[in-house]
Structure formats: C-alpha cells, structure tokens
From TrEMBL:
Pfam families, per the entry: EI24 (PF07264)
Membrane-spanning ranges: 21-49, 69-94, 101-122, 142-164, 171-194, 214-243
Tagged with keyword RNA-binding: no
Keywords: Membrane, Transmembrane, Transmembrane helix
Main location: membrane
Name of the protein this chain belongs to: Etoposide-induced protein 2.4 (EI24)
Organism whose genome encodes this protein: Thiomicrorhabdus immobilis
Length: 255
C-alpha cells in the first residue's frame, strides 16, 4: 500500500499529471464548496428527514430519555449537557462527511473525463513496454454505477437508525461513501487498462493493496477542498497497480 502511495505522489512532479490534478480544483473550488457543505443543512430540515417515521420515533425516545435523565438529582443536568455536546459533535462530523462526499462526487465526474489521459500519462512515463487494452463501454459503466449507487442508497435508508448511535454512525457513513468511491474508481480505471478476465481477478474489495491505498486517499477527502484532488490521485494509484499486474502476467502464466 505504501509503495503504491509513494509512486502516486512521485508522479505529481510530472507536468502531464500535475495540470490535470488542478482541473477539478479550478472547476469547483467556489461552486462545489459553497453548495457541498450548504446542502447538508437543507437535507437535515427537509421533509424526507423530519417526517421520516424512524426519525420521529427516535425524537420521541430522545425526549423521554432527556426527561428521565434530567430528573436525576444534581448530575441530571450535567449528563444532559454532555449528551448534547456529543450529539452536536457527531452532527458536525456527519455534516463535514456529507459535504465532502458532494465535493468528491463532483470531482469524480470531472476526473472521469480525464481517466484515459491520466492512464496514458502513467503508462508512457513508467510502463512504455506494457501493452494494455480495456473492456466494456461508457454506458455499461454508467449503468453499473447507477445500480450500485441505488443499492447503497437503499442500504443507507434501511440503516438510518444507525446514524443515532455514537461513533458507529460516523464509521458507517464513512464506509458507505468509501464503498461507492472505491467501486467507481476501480471500475473506471479497470475498464481502461485491463481485459475483463484480468479485471475480475483484481476488482474485489479483499484485494487489500489497492483497497487500502484508495481508503487512505478517501480518508483525506474529508479535509475541506482536498476531495477535489483525491479522484485524480486514486486513478494514478490504481493505474500503477494495474500496470504492475499486467507486467507480471507472463510470469503468472508460466507458473
């Protein structure tokens, strides 16, 4: 994983890669930053959230719990204050995560149009003797992403009560975002570089080297504006991994 990340960072000095790194940044630094973090507030006060039966039941339970705790002599008020602080911190973290996701999605869309040129830049610099040919089509990829995104959305809706469990809610919300990010980048880069048979060998989540590398990059996307660069870095990292995989193919076939 660390070797893959070091290769990715070392490529940032290449002009052909460096200018592409800033394309999403220039395109979205104002628009996406304002909209990305602002839309979370709209989402929280929308009927979708406020009128959700599970949310309303949770609100009733919270009120009852506050009344019960508040009735405890001396320490009741202190406990309510502590719980309120914890809830505020969790809501703030979830807000940052959602804002980061919106920024990241916009950057992923822009980066998707540059994937071929980024892959070619990595190939020409480091793997000029490795031939590559992809598979699939753009429409096929869009369909797969739509289906996968819809399934994750359903999973999110089913697990909304988990958002009220401290710490678990942050981890779960982050994991859902990571799953979509990883699936999108792996599919995008894999279709450009690998034949379908080889892609099926390396696409799984349990292929830990690329999964951990992408996870490390995705974790950085929670920092303000950093998410605008992350898709480009992820494409570079996976390009290195897939080209390394292709270059060792004759050795694996002999074995």
């Amino acid at each position: 994983m660390f070797d893959l990340l070091l290769k990715t960072l070392s490529d940032l000095k290449e002009p052909a890669i460096l200018w592409r790194l800033f394309v999403p940044f220039v395109a979205a630094i104002i628009l996406v930053s304002l909209m990305g973090y602002g839309l979370f507030g709209v989402f929280l006060v929308s009927d979708f959230v406020t009128q959700n039966p599970m949310v309303q039941e949770m609100g009733v339970w919270t009120n009852e719990a506050q009344q019960t705790i508040g009735a405890i002599p001396f320490i009741g008020g202190v406990l309510i204050w502590i719980v309120g602080m914890v809830v505020a911190v969790i809501a703030g973290v979830l807000g940052v995560l959602l804002g980061s996701y919106l920024i990241l999605i916009f950057a992923m869309i822009i980066t998707g149009f540059m994937t071929d040129s980024l892959v070619k830049a990595v190939h020409d610099k480091h793997y000029p003797n490795t031939d590559y040919s992809g598979h699939g089509s753009i429409m096929g990829m869009v369909w797969k992403l739509t289906v996968y995104g819809f399934l994750l959305l359903l999973l999110f809706l089913v697990t909304i009560p988990m958002l009220f469990i401290p710490l678990i809610n942050i981890i779960w919300f982050w994991l859902l975002g990571f799953m979509f990010f990883r699936y999108s980048i792996v599919l995008d880069v894999g279709q450009v570089i690998l034949p379908e048979k080889l892609f099926d060998e390396v696409k799984h989540m349990t292929n830990w080297t690329p999964t951990l590398a992408v996870a490390a990059l995705f974790l950085l996307s929670t920092l303000p504006l950093v998410g605008l660069f992350i898709p480009v870095l992820a494409v570079i990292a996976l390009s290195h991994y897939y080209f390394d995989y292709l270059s060792t193919m004759p050795v694996r076939e002999e074995r």
